[in-house]
Amino acid sequence: MSSEDSWSEPLPVQEIQEIADKVKPQLEKKVDKTYRVFVANQYRYLKNIVGASHYLIKVSVSNSTDECVHLYVVQMVIATPVDPELKKYQLNKTKDDPLEPF
């Protein structure tokens, strides 16, 4: 099984916006930029990982263009709630770019 096989197919956004909102300040600090628009529009999750949830999230960052960022986020699954952590990101993506593991 390849690492690609472990990821879900791209899924429409439902509850993932809350996770995107929590990692937005982490991204803004790393890239030294403020995003006025930050709307998750697709995500994938890594299957069969014990102790953590892994997500790839495509986020629209502009109302006037199709500019997006791709986020790799890890959410620990433990008794005490812990905020999700932004592990990696890709800038200068578009809505047409596929959401692929990176």
TrEMBL record:
<feature type="domain" description="Cystatin">
    <location>
        <begin position="10"/>
        <end position="95"/>
    </location>
</feature>
<protein>
    <recommendedName>
        <fullName>Cystatin domain-containing protein</fullName>
    </recommendedName>
</protein>
<comment type="similarity">
    <text>Belongs to the cystatin family.</text>
</comment>
<dbReference type="InterPro" id="IPR001713">
    <property type="entry name" value="Prot_inh_stefin"/>
</dbReference>
<dbReference type="GO" id="GO:0005829">
    <property type="term" value="C:cytosol"/>
</dbReference>
<dbReference type="Pfam" id="PF00031">
    <property type="entry name" value="Cystatin"/>
</dbReference>
<keyword id="KW-0789">Thiol protease inhibitor</keyword>
<keyword id="KW-0646">Protease inhibitor</keyword>
<keyword id="KW-0963">Cytoplasm</keyword>
<dbReference type="GO" id="GO:0004869">
    <property type="term" value="F:cysteine-type endopeptidase inhibitor activity"/>
</dbReference>
<dbReference type="InterPro" id="IPR000010">
    <property type="entry name" value="Cystatin_dom"/>
</dbReference>
<dbReference type="InterPro" id="IPR046350">
    <property type="entry name" value="Cystatin_sf"/>
</dbReference>
